[in-house]
Amino acid sequence: MGNKESFAEIYQQYAPQVLRICMGYTNNAEQAKDFMQETFIKVWQHLENFRGASKMSTWLYRIAVNTCLHHWRLPKNKIPETLHENFDAADNSEHSEKEKNIQQLYKAIQQLNETDRLIISMVLEEISYPEIAETLNISEGNLRVKIHRIKQDLTKKFFSHE
Amino acid sequence: MNSFNEIEALWKKIEARPLPDATQIIGKAQKNKNQVSRKISVQIFCMLLVIPALFYVGLTFQFQYWSSYAGMILMALCVLLFSYFRLQQYLFLKQVDFSEDPYELLKRFKKFYAHQQWLNTKGSFWYVLILNIAFALYFYEVVYKAPTTMPVKIMILMIYIAWMLIATRWIKKISNKKEHKKTQAIIKQIQQLQQSPDS
């Protein structure tokens, strides 16, 4: 690892997934892209130091999660409410039913707290529970309890708006 | 029934927006650049062919009026000046390297686009105007003073006017539109390169 080719492969493989996770977290396309890029800049900078103690994907998700949480904790980077609506600002008439539902889902995810948002985004990305637990540095048992609660919470929030 | 499975199914439908792939974008930009520079080089070549042709005409035929020589000199100057501007554009495109800093490249390409627009509008207007004055001077002896009948003279004039209208109103517009579109595409591709992590 550590060469340009490896990075290109990692980028091709994980960028769409990381982008969706960041999108679930921010509900703002531009900010999600920024977070994704920042994640991969960090990956590029630290790729040579990656020892393989954990899976590459776990290491990458952890960077992505930390990037999102770090930005959330900076007051200037808190996403204003108006930005959460950025997809609605686009021409609604052109939105298909599917797109409307997706926006509704993003809105429902936004109502969760920041850690829950990242957890559910990773669950929806079908990342394995042990990997999510390792990424977030919590026990798998604890994670399963959290996921059960988040799923119920999200389902309720999503369908209450329909 | 409202369940989490529906949410999972919906999430799977989300397409991550296409992420810019620098190699692919550079390939497209390179192709557009080559097409524009090829077009410019062909145009310069064709225009410069006019110079030996003018020399040939000027040295072969003995014109009686100074206006014929003045017309030919003006034509040559017009062609040389326009070719010079086009050569500048060609040389710019030749030295463009898409692997350099996209921010700097974008600035230079925007400048190039402004120059291209100027040359294809205002520059082109003056080129056509002066070229027509040159033709008028040249045709004064070649057509007007020539021992041909009036209908033939009128016909030559009509053909000339028709050709000028077709060339400037139709062919030139289509050609410029294509050229501008390609430059716009290159600018857009450089902007995409700015977002690419590979750049």
Give a structural overview.
The complex is a heterodimer of chains A (about 160) and B (about 200). Helix content of chain A is about 75%, strand content about 0%. Chain A has about 160 residues and is mostly helical. The radius of gyration of chain A is 16 Å and the shape is globular. Chain A is built from nine helices and no strands. Chain B contains five helices and no strands. Chain B has helices spanning about 5-10, 20-60, 65-95, 100-145, 150-195. Chain B has one domain. The radius of gyration of chain B is 26 Å and the shape is elongated. Classes of the chains: A mainly alpha (about 160), B mainly alpha (about 200). The interface of A and B includes residues 20 and 41 of A.
Shape of chain B: elongated
First-residue to last-residue Cα separation of chain B: 48 Å
Q: Quick one: how many beta strands of chain B?
A: 0
Question: CATH superfamily membership of chain A, which one?
Answer: RNA polymerase sigma factor, region 2, helix turn helix motif
Runs of chain B in which pLDDT lies below 50 for 5 or more consecutive residues are none
| Helix-strand makeup class of chain A | mainly alpha
- Give helix % range of chain B: over 70%
Name a few traits of the molecule:
heterodimer; A: 162 residues; mainly alpha; Rna Polymerase Sigma Factor, Chain: A; 9 helices; globular; B: 199 residues
